[in-house]
Specification:
The protein has 476 residues and is mainly beta. It is 10% helix and 35% strand. The strands form nine sheets. The chain has a five-stranded mixed sheet, with no helix packed on it. A four-stranded antiparallel sheet has the order 2-33-32-31, with no helix packed on it. The longest helix is centred in the N-terminal third of the chain and has 26 residues. The C terminus is likely disordered.
C-alpha cells in the first residue's frame, strides 16, 4: 500500500512543470514553517509583561491598623493569617529587630504548618492533626488544647471572642469559642478546605478544594452565598473595600464582590509553556492599588486592583508558592518580598517589578515572606531554618536553625517563630561586640548576655532587658 502511494506521488511530480513544482514547494514550505512556529509557540514559556501605565498608588508611611492599636501594654494583635485584611504580612514594629534573646519554647510534637495568630495575652494555632491550641504569650504555657479535626493546614481568624477555622479532614468550617476551645458551630463543606479564612463585617470568607468559595455568617455558620470558581482554592483570600482577592488551581485570579460573590474580574496567568497553566497557591497581598501574588509557573504577578490588568510579571527560577509580603517601610521604597523554590529570596520594586536585591536563605522557600519592622523573614523547608534579611540591603541579620513554613508573627514587642513543631518566643535586646556562632545569627545566648552585663555592654531594649551595668530582669 505504501509503495503504491509513493509511486503515484512520483508519477504526479514528474507530470508537473518546473513552475508548478516551484509553487508546490513554496506551499509545502510555508505549511511546514507554520507548523514549526505553532509548535514553538506552544512549547515556549511566555515572556514577562511590563505595563508602566497601570495605576500605582504611592502610600504614606504605614500606621498600625485601628484594631491593632495597643489598648494596654500587651502590644498589638495579629488576629489573622497575614496580619491585616489585605494580607500584606507587614507589621511596622521597628523595635522588633535582631539581636534577640530566647524567652520560651513550646513543642507540639506535630507539624505546625501555618503561623499562629496573637490576640491579647493569648496565641492560637492549629497543628496538622487538627489539634487547636491556646498558649499564654508571656510563658508559652498551654491554656487549652482540643482536637477538632483529623487534618489541617491553615490558620484560624479571630472575631469577637471566636476562632473561625476550616479543616481538610473532615471538610468543614468551624466556629470555636476562644476562651475554652468549645465548638459553637460546625458546617460540612463539599470537600476539603485549607484556605485560611478572613472575617469582615461579620462574614467569614474562604475557598475549598472543589472550587466553591463561601461566605458564612461568622456567628452561626449559615451560608450567605457561595460562588463556583474554575479550580481548587487553597490560598487565603485577601479583602479590602468590599472586594475579595484570591487565585485557584486552574490558573485564574479573581476579584469577588464581598456582598454577593459576583465575579468583578478574572485574569488568567501566563502559564509555563507546553500549553500548561500555572496554579495560584500563594496568598496575595493588596497594596498600592495593586494585587501581588506568586504562581507555580515561577512568576510573581502585579494586577491592577480595580480591573485585573497585569501591571508586571517577574520570573523567578522555580515555583513561587510563597505568599508575597508588601511593605512601605520607613527606610525603603514600596517593595514586595517573597521566596521561591529556586532557593532565593527577592525584593522587588512594587511599582515596576524590578529587582532591588536577591539573597540566598539556604534552601527552598514555600511559606510566606513576613516583614516585621525593617527585616523580612522566610523559612526554608529544605534547609529547616528561619532567616531574616535587612529590607534595604538584603544582608542576612537573623538565622535560627528551626523552620519549615511559618515563619514568624509579632505582637509589636516580641517575635514568635514557628519551626516545624515548635513555637519559639524572642525579645529584642541591645548588646554590642557579640559575634554570632556558626548556624545562628541575631540570637544572643544567656552566657553571652551575662558576660555583656558584667562588662556594662548591654543596654535596655524594647523587650525589657536590664539597664546598662545592672543585673537585668529574670532571664527567659
Amino acid at each position: 500500500m505504501i509503495v503504491e502511494r509513493m509511486e503515484r506521488i512520483k508519477i504526479t511530480w514528474e507530470k508537473l512543470s518546473g513552475a508548478e513544482r516551484l509553487l508546490l514547494g513554496i506551499v509545502v514550505g510555508v505549511v511546514f514553517a507554520t507548523c514549526i512556529l505553532a509548535a514553538v509557540a506552544l512549547v515556549k514559556r511566555p515572556d514577562d509583561i511590563s505595563n508602566p501605565d497601570v495605576t500605582f498608588e504611592e502610600a504614606s508611611k504605614p500606621q498600625p491598623q485601628p484594631e491593632s492599636k495597643p489598648a494596654d501594654k500587651r502590644g498589638v494583635d495579629w488576629p489573622r493569617y497575614g496580619y491585616d485584611t489585605e494580607r500584606t504580612k507587614f507589621l511596622n514594629a521597628q523595635k522588633v529587630r535582631p539581636p534577640f534573646r530566647k524567652v520560651w519554647k513550646y513543642d507540639q510534637d506535630q507539624l505546625i504548618e501555618f503561623a499562629p495568630i496573637v490576640v491579647g495575652v493569648r496565641m492560637y494555632l492549629i497543628d496538622n492533626d487538627g489539634v487547636f491550641i491556646a498558649l499564654n504569650n508571656d510563658t508559652g504555657k498551654v491554656i487549652w488544647k482540643k482536637r477538632h479535626g483529623k487534618l489541617n493546614a491553615s490558620s484560624p481568624a479571630f472575631w469577637k471572642g471566636m476562632l473561625l477555622a476550616v479543616n481538610l479532614e473532615p471538610g468543614q468550617a468551624l466556629g470555636i469559642r476562644a476562651r475554652d476551645g468549645k465548638v459553637m458551630w460546625s458546617k460540612d463543606l463539599p470537600g476539603r478546605a485549607e484556605s485560611s479564612p478572613i472575617v469582615a463585617g461579620g462574614t467569614m470568607y474562604f475557598g475549598t478544594e472543589p472550587g466553591d468559595f463561601f461566605a458564612l455568617d461568622a456567628r452561626t455558620g449559615k451560608t450567605k452565598w457561595s460562588t463556583k470558581l474554575d479550580g481548587a482554592v487553597k490560598a487565603a483570600p485577601a479583602f479590602t473595600d468590599g472586594s475579595l482577592y484570591v487565585g485557584d488551581y486552574a490558573g485564574q485570579f479573581y476579584s469577588l464582590r464581598a456582598d454577593d460573590g459576583a465575579i468583578r474580574w478574572k485574569t488568567s496567568d501566563l502559564g509555563a509553556g507546553l500549553g500548561r497553566s500555572g496554579r495560584f497557591y500563594s496568598t496575595a497581598a493588596v497594596a498600592f492599588g495593586r494585587v501581588y501574588v506568586g504562581n507555580v509557573d515561577g512568576r510573581v504577578y502585579s494586577f491592577d486592583r480595580q480591573t485585573g490588568e497585569i501591571a508586571w510579571t517577574f520570573s523567578a527560577g522555580d515555583f513561587v508558592y510563597s505568599g508575597v509580603a508588601a511593605a512601605d517601610a520607613p527606610k525603603t521604597k514600596p517593595s514586595v518580598y517573597f521566596g521561591s523554590h529556586d532557593k532565593q529570596v527577592y525584593s522587588l520594586d512594587a511599582e515596576s517589578g524590578k529587582v532591588n536585591w536577591a539573597a540566598e536563605p539556604g534552601g527552598q522557600v514555600s511559606g510566606p515572606a513576613t516583614v516585621i519592622g525593617d527585616v523580612v523573614y522566610v523559612s526554608t523547608f529544605s534547609g529547616n531554618a528561619t532567616v531574616g534579611f535587612d529590607l534595604t540591603t538584603g544582608r542576612r541579620v537573623f538565622k535560627f536553625d528551626e523552620g519549615e513554613y511559618g515563619p514568624v508573627v509579632s505582637d509589636g514587642k516580641r517575635l514568635f517563630l514557628v519551626g516545624g513543631s515548635e513555637v519559639v518566643a524572642f525579645r529584642p535586646i541591645k548588646i554590642y561586640d557579640y559575634k554570632a556562632k556558626k548556624g545562628t545569627k541575631g540570637i544572643v545566648p544567656p552566657a553571652e548576655r551575662r558576660r555583656a552585663r558584667s562588662k556594662g555592654a548591654e543596654k535596655q531594649g524594647s523587650g525589657g532587658e536590664g539597664k546598662k551595668g545592672s543585673p537585668g530582669k529574670k532571664k527567659g
